[in-house]
Amino acid sequence: MSVIPDRASAVIIGAGIVGNSLAYHLARLGRTELVLVDKGPMPNPGGSTGHASNFIFPIEYSKMMMELTRDSTEQYKELGVFTESGGVEVARTQARMQELRRRCSQAKSWGIPAELLTPEGVRKLVPYLNDSVILGGCQFPTVGVVDSLRAGTLMRERAQQLGALTVLAGAEVVGIDKSDDGRVVAVRTTKGDIATDVVAICCGVWSPRIARMAGARIPLTPIVHQMISVGPIALFDGTAGEIAYPIVRDVDENMYERQHGGDMEVGSYAHRAIIVAPDDIPSIEAAVLSPTEMPFTQDDFDPQLELALELMPELLGDERAGVRYAINGLISMTPDGHPVLGETPEVPGLWSVAASWIKEGPGVGRAVAEWMSGVTPEIDIHEADIARFYPHQRTTTHVAERAREGFNKMYGIVHPSEQWESGRPVRVSPAYERERALGAMFYETAGWERPFWYESNAGLLETYADRLMDRPSEWESRWWSPIINAEHLAMRDAAGLFDLSAFAILDVTGPGAVHALQQVAVAQMQVPVGRVVYTSFLDDAGGFRADLTIMRLGPRHFRVVTGAATGMADYKWITDHLPDNGSAAVTDVTSAWTTYGLWGPRARDILGTITGDDISHAGFPFGTCKEIEVAGMTVLASRISYVGELGWELYAPMEQGAKLWDTVFGAGQPAGLVPAGIGVYGTTGRLEKGYRAYGAELDATYNLVEAGMTRPKVKEQEFVGKTAYLSQRETALAAALCTLTVDDHVSESGELRYMLGGEPVLLPDGTPLIDARGRRSYVTSAGSGPSVGKHLLLSYLPPDQAVVGTPLAVEYMGEQYPVTVAVAGSRPLFDPTNERARS
Amino acid sequence: MDILVCVKRVPMVGGKVLVTADGQDLDTRMSGFTVSPHEECAIEEAVQITEREGGTVTVLTLGPPEAADQLRDMLAVGAHRGVLLETDGREWGPVATAAAIVAAVGELGHTPFPLILAGNESADTGGYQVGIRVAHALGRPCLTGVKRLELAGDTIRAAREYRGVHELFEVALPAVVTVREGINLPRYPSLPGRLRAKRAEITVLRPQWQADGLRKQGLRVPVGSARRAQVLGHGTAAVPALIDVLGDLGVLPPAVRSGGDGAAA
What we know:
Distance between the termini of chain B: 52 Å
CATH superfamily of the domain at 82-141 and 222-327 in chain A: D-Amino Acid Oxidase, subunit A, domain 2
Oligomer: heterodimer
Largest sheet of chain A: 9 strands, mixed
CATH topology of the largest domain in chain B: Rossmann fold
CATH class of the largest domain in chain B: Alpha Beta
Largest sheet of chain B: 7 strands, parallel
Number of helices of chain A: 20
Structural class of chain B: alpha/beta
Shape of chain B: globular
Strand content of chain B: 15-25%
Distance between the termini of chain A: 77 Å
Number of strands of chain A: 40
Order of helices and strands of chain B: EEEHEHEHEHEEEEEHEHH
Shape of chain A: globular
Largest interface: A-B, 32 and 26 residues
CATH architecture of the domain at 82-141 and 222-327 in chain A: 2-Layer Sandwich
Strand order of the largest sheet of chain B: 7-11-6-1-4-5-12
Radius of gyration of chain A: 28 Å
Number of helices of chain B: 7
CATH superfamily of the largest domain in chain B: HUPs
Radius of gyration of chain B: 22 Å
Number of strands of chain B: 12
């Protein structure tokens, strides 16, 4: 019998694949006195791990998800519980065939084996599949199945063998205690209380309920995934082991068919979204099967039966094979489909390790164990950071809306720019109604409605008719408009007014403010008041953690401006690195300030008509900020640019934002000012200037040197990642970020095609490029460069290829297109000497 | 032969039964509905008979419109025809239920159903009455608790066990038989069966409700009714206690039961 320890270095709640993996990796990293508690029995305490179909497809569009899946697969193999079966995704439509070509190309970017198949090719692998209903397929030979319960048991036992872990089964958590200053101090269970500073919630579908005990929110929802098991299948009789045939994903019908011994498991994501609140999940005692194996609702599955029969008529149509098992299995879904990992922003010491599926579980356990141990995770998991969520995104309403909308897209053809429809609008700029009147096409970032382009600029299509780089193919024209390129050209000719109100704005104040920021910023923060600093934040290993600008507004006052998507994570990063003595504080003032960007050769002329202050180049130099008076308002103007033009970011109090918009917009009309969207700001203007974006070019797997962002000197003050950065500067370059231009867009079928990002970059003979650190070259960002007349791609290339003029190829939708290295390093393709921004 | 099988929609429950706040119903929000295992066996028995001898299986239930789900479940495992005696949410006791079934047998008319099967008792109220009352009203013999059934021309041979005694009966058709779990191993629905069930027409009749004897006052879960587990011991030390338990259950060969040297092997 386990004796309940009264103290633990960490209490891990939940003995599914995630909790077991976390326990093992923490123990492996040297942590002792760990306790793993679960209300259920071992080895299957009744959570989602116990009913998972346990197969792993390696292909993901998200690099993070792909890496977590890859690491998990390696761990399952090492544990001896992985069986490679191969897998096939089949297409019933032409649109899906194109999607499979896209997936094949993406697989090549990540180094995942994949091959396009004809219907006959599919049938050769899956002899019981009716190839008359498909147009083809894509084979992923490294797909496999795992025994996740066995894996969890082995990991748990390893931690126990290291003498690091006590396991408490049948102990339900009934409370989490906090200290007066809000830190975790103890976990209360039905078998006794355990004092601890660290609690990891690995409770899958129950995670929100456990987090609420401590006053934190974990934004996920339990949702039903239906699965049936049909057998005995005559063909599978005598199968040695668990599986002998490839797993089939009938993606157009949101289904899969997977051999499991003598049975065929048929799963569906096609039915209505059935959400179950965590508090409504039955207890172990009241559950008919297990708490997460809810009673099957036949009506929801009936349409799928016919489709499954159509695909595998003889095999599934056998009257002697019966539905032996059918469940409404509960799984975790999050608003953006990514796991929810990291210390909760609300409660220090309380960690979320939730919304991880079988295919990510061991990788997630390892990454979070590293993170908890003060080691930079090998895989960049910022896209899974629980700190990414804004308060509204943690509400049950938002989570349910997005889960409902996302559920049927699980196997969907999702465009990289596809927008959510539910739960909008939430956050709008003061100019929102004006932008609507101008026909703004809004995209959403972190709840903000951001104009991507304006239909009111449609007249510019004629003006710039020969420079629009229009996209005839439906896929690339989706979520895009040639108006973006017209706006871009109009901005370069005159000026553009951008709504940047979504920026997250964080004020760092106090006597220790400069020191606080000095510790996280690569750039020197001891600068004169009125200076604007562009800087990166690094992690300990020298990977990118953030990329943003900081204004010094006073001796003890800095204003950090960062992207909406990363605002909350950056806020936590700064907060976590504040000095212990309370000499500096960080405040989120996003909701206080509206931000517009005014850029273009006529920007000074326009601003000059509405302010009497000195905005001359000498009086208001590049890289500085100051308050100016505009039409009776005090506006903070910052002279920087992300689009490579003369101009300013203009900050006004939120309630004066509408007036500022009207004032600038009106004043700009004679000069040809156009409203311009994020399509220009984030893509065309940026790419022509070779500006890097966090999350695209800048992530934890590349560094400042490779990104071409080093400065001649490194500041003498300490900062996070400095040691690693200094060593990177001395190490031979493994890859360099380059700008490539596409030389020929014509596909084999004679259509003009435009890459959208993520594509593999190859030698002209089709050989993938792999750098000295094993990283493959792929397109980190792609978009039009209307002013340079080329479609632009950014990609890290090995040194031999990172040479201007080098001919290469990019694979898109299964075809190769010739490209040329136009820029090696950070020199802009457009206006290389930056005269426009600095004039 | 044309066989009628009567089933009842009942809540699916786990180890712990949950009652609604007003104490009038089982809390089924997070569970589902099913029929009793006895009734699943009755259907299987009927289907096997018709597979051997020809004929049809009609499955009948009395319940709310949702009870059609249970009819389709039975159609999916081989019943040919479904009849729903649709109720309006009022409580139906065994007298009224049996009367409605008898009336339906008349209304369905075209066949006299020489054999009517039912489960020995329902899984929720456990009244043990409906089959017997139907037989009585139709003037037929009734065999209850049957665990083996054979058809021989116009007679059936049935067997049951009662307190360790095997009873054998021979009864002339038409008759009513209530069966118990264990008489056969019910099959799982095949996919084609499920699709046939989905498409099948269900005959809906609306019988007249009538008051009868027993009325539900409320539901209460008895205290201490939860299952209990006893830890016999740990490791090899638990072996003697385990053998005792297995011996009490009568599942060990005599040599082991007598405690020979090979007991632990």
